[in-house]
Amino acid sequence: MLQALLETLDRDARQRNDWGQVASYIPELASIDPAQFAISVCTVDGQEYHAGDVQVPFSIQSVSKVFTLALALGRLGGRLWERVGREPSGRAFNSIVQLEREQGIPRNPFINAGAIVTTDAVLGQRAPRETLGEILSFLREAADDSDVHINEYVARSEQRTGDRNYALAHFLRSCGNLHNDCDRALGTYFHHCAIEMTTVQLARAARFLCGGFRGHRMIGIERVRSINALMMTCGHYDGSGEFAYRVGFPGKSGVGGGIMAVVPNVASIAVWSPGLDQYGNSKQGTKALESLSKATGWSVFA
Ligand code: GLN
């Protein structure tokens, strides 16, 4: 029944033919065809269901912030919260205005400023290459798949045009909340955002956040709870309330059009459609998750 449902969601997305706009501020992503859709679900009893363009790797972008957060919490524990908050920002992912008011402590680890800080925390004093290796290893282990890579063109394309993120990083550094220099921290950040995965790989990679047959083997239950809470409240930036209302379980979006979502103790989900809504979240991806949630009763609020 789940398989038939996913196929319906795929068909519906294509029939609506209302894809939204692809992110154009990263030149390498601007040329992607918006008329694509894929969805994958892994249930905690070990079953998998897939529909649509599930073999096409896409740029996971801000979805990668979940994995850096997992590693940063592992490294710093509760001390991470001295450097980054846990409140929804109510602002765009790349917003700069709150940072001055809050003296260089970003609102949460999923807006860009917060993710630059968590990347800096994971980096510590190590080389970017080593840190990126650690992030990739974590993802490969979570997905049970060694075929997960960084797209260098996307990383460089963003580095060349990333003035806004440079502004955020310089401001953070002026407040003493960036320990590496801006190039080093951002180089690492742009590279983990440029990781490419399919929905099959991403849904598998999210299993560590939803319990079940893999349990919470990769990280402890406390960290799982923290990450899921933050995905619920902050995972879609200024569209987070709307996502909670329409979908009703934790999820993290990226401007590549991916959304990774978790139904605790039930299933992990990845959906991808590169056209975005006004908040920079996948338009058809969100719509599909909304329909999936209604059809299955998976909202945590139900
Ligand atoms: N790499 C992107 C940026 O920093 C990530 C943003 C996103 O996916 N929302 O702008």
Automatic annotation (TrEMBL):
It is an enzyme of class 3 (hydrolase). Keywords: Acetylation, Hydrolase. It catalyses: L-glutamine + H2O = L-glutamate + NH4(+). It holds the Pfam family Glutaminase. Substrate binds at residues 62, 112, 158, 165, 189, 237, 255. GO terms for molecular function: glutaminase activity. SUPFAM superfamilies: beta-lactamase/transpeptidase-like. GO terms for biological process: glutamate biosynthetic process; L-glutamine catabolic process. It comes from the Bacteria. The keyword Acetylation applies. Its EC number is 3.5.1.2. The keyword Acetylation applies. InterPro entries: Beta-lactam/transpept-like, Glutaminase. Homotetramer. Belongs to the glutaminase family. This is Glutaminase. It comes from Halomonas binhaiensis. The gene is glsA.
